[in-house]
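Whether sequence alone determines local backbone shape is best considered at the level of individual chains. We regard such an encoding as a compact summary of how the chain folds. The sequence in question and its structure tokens are set out directly beneath this paragraph.
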Amino acid sequence: MRLRKLSIYILVFIFIASCKKVLDTQPEFSVNGNSSFNKISDFEDALTGAYRLFRSTSYYGATDGAANAWGLLPDMLADNLDETSESLGNERVFSRWTYAADEDQIENAWLSAYRIVAQANLIPSKGIDNFASTDAGAVNRIKSQALAIRALVHFDILRYWVEDYDRNSTKPGIPYITEFNYEVKPSRSTVKSTYDQIESDLKTAKGLMRSMDRPINQTGRAYIDSSTINALLARMYLYANQLDSAIKYSSYAINARPLASRVTFPNIWTDASTTEVFWSYSFESGQGSPGANAYAPSVNRSQYRPNPTLVSTYDQVNDVLFPSYFAVIAKGSSSRRVLSKYNAKAAQVSKPDGVVNFKVFRTGEMYLIRAEAYARKGNDVSGSADLNTLRSARIAGYIPVPLTGQTLLDAIALERRKELIGEGHRFFDLKRTTRVVNRTDCTAFCTLPSNSRAWTWPIPQAEIDANPNILPQNPGY
């Protein structure tokens, strides 16, 4: 692969069989892309390395001063999380929409994503299919996850770096990298072509998962399995405005993993339960924290607070979301409300350290995808039923309310804000629907209009300098 800086050696991480989660492993050795893969365990190691790279502070990980591009940052870019006086200013370029093509954090996000793609591409590129005659089940299990990872990451890149999410758009897409070859200088395909390749990889992966040597998630939810692929397809189809397919695949996902009860739901956020979780990206002590750049409990710093107007829309007495997501924490002689859903695992709740798993896909999102798809198709009865089912699962004593038309769509959009705050959705939700940010409780940088260049991130200038084939640059940069 030839994206700037990706000609470096790609780490391959050895799998430690005694670990309960693949992401608990630590790097034991590294190889470069020219190394030989001589046994199936070499491909297991490469897959472990691909999973581990999601922990980057530019992907799902974060520190007290660095954002996770596909975690909290979409809420900072939009109207869910507001900068506070405790801010170190590290994410101000995003919350104020002042980024340019030479922004280091945008380049880091680009590189971290394509590093994962490069690592996943080691598996097909190094000849895993050569082992199909002797260990077909293991080949299918490993290769399917590599293809799913490749598709997921390309979809995430698409969300930031393309203008138009329409399934058949001929506007510039992104480079879709399918082999480990760091000498290639890729060009941008169209959005349509990008979707075609994402969809093909996901459906191929799902097919391979029908015949494996063992289940992918024997314990926990640390790996991408077929139910996770259904959830990703549902999300992708909603973005692409393929509403029937969004309904189909969200239904598959909902049937596989029912909603948590109100008793169980808080345990999801301390990793005491994986109910309704499709894929939970693991973090352990010393590996970073998915929520630290909003609220870091280890130092009691809240750089970005939950928006007060949004907070006021929760039923603060009966809605299980409210105490699961927010807390009032003292700071000096005063106190403030913080986003606390990433405070700690169960064993650490009395002394929170900010180390908790990041939930990439949950059933709550699937109900909201299906509700929105039904409503956008004009099936208000089914859309309203899904919204009310989700609300009934979260709010004690909730009385279902039938909604129709724009009122229903607005209610679903609000419920997405409430349900999915801090999980990497809000900026993209606005981009694919209204394409406007209107911040409340705001004195500056309050509105992002629909014609702003900031809705689409620039191709990093360093990438263009190294690879002119990547042009055109996105408009306005």
Q: What stands out?
A: The mean pLDDT is 92. The chain is about 40% helix and 10% strand. The beta strands are 81-83, 277-281, 295-296, 301-302, 304-306, 326-331, 334-339, 358-362, 437-438, 447-448. The two ends are 25 Å apart (CA to CA).
